[in-house]
Amino acid sequence: MKIRVINGPNLNMLGIREPEVYGNTGYKDLCEMIGKHAKEKGIEVEILQSNHEGDLVEMIQGAYRWDDAIIINPGAYTHTSIAILDAAKAVGLPVVEVHISDVTKREEFRQISYIRQACVHTIMGHGLNGYTEAMDYLIEYCNKP
Ligand code: DQA
């Protein structure tokens, strides 16, 4: 099984950006944590990050016929991007939306998620563990008869 993990804008700044919201762990450590979990579960992961909306669309499209599932944290594009939603719908793969923070407890402008329509599950407010929880969810989801 192959999962593509896609992170949007400013997630490369983890550990530096607003540590009171996103914690002190850096992006490299997050990637290592995901890689270690994948190894333990016997699956493959590819971890990608971009600060650009079009790149994120291409990263989603690139999973078509290549990956079994997608985990995505689109960052601020969660709340604005119909193009990212359309890409997720286009590939037709199971997608889990992850947010490190609990966006439901934050500003009004974060209350809309376009991508959610194309997702089989959303995990938010579980910090970086949300990514490994999303992996476990998709392993079970994809192995369901
Ligand atoms: C985020 C929440 C978004 O509102 C924000 O723009 C981010 C990160 C999260 O992981 O909690 O960049 O997706």
* Strand elements, count: 5
- Order of helices and strands, N to C? EHHEHEHEEH
Helix content: 25-40%
The number of distinct structural domains comes to 1
Cα gyration radius (Å): 14 Å
The average pLDDT score comes to 97
CATH topology name: Rossmann fold
Intertermini distance: 15 Å
What does this structure look like?
- The chain has one domain (2-142): Dehydroquinase, class II (Rossmann fold, 3-Layer(aba) Sandwich).
- Helix 3 (53-61) runs parallel beside helix 4.
- With 145 residues, the protein is an alpha/beta fold.
- The model has no long low-confidence stretch (mean pLDDT 97).
- It has helices spanning 19-22, 27-41, 53-61, 82-91, 129-143, and strands at residues 2-7, 44-49, 69-73, 95-99, 121-124.
- The protein has 5 helices and 5 strands.
- The protein is globular and about 40 Å long.
- 32% of the residues are buried.
- 37% of the residues lie in helices and 18% in strands.
- The longest helix has 15 residues, at 27-41.
- The structure holds 1,3,4-trihydroxy-5-OXO-cyclohexanecarboxylic acid.
- 1,3,4-trihydroxy-5-OXO-cyclohexanecarboxylic acid binds next to loops.
- The site of 1,3,4-trihydroxy-5-OXO-cyclohexanecarboxylic acid has 10 residues, from loops.
Question: Layout of SSEs?
Answer:
Blueprint: E1 2-7, H1 19-22, H2 27-41, E2 44-49, H3 53-61, E3 69-73, H4 82-91, E4 95-99, E5 121-124, H5 129-143
Parallel strand pairs: 1-2, 1-3, 3-4, 4-5
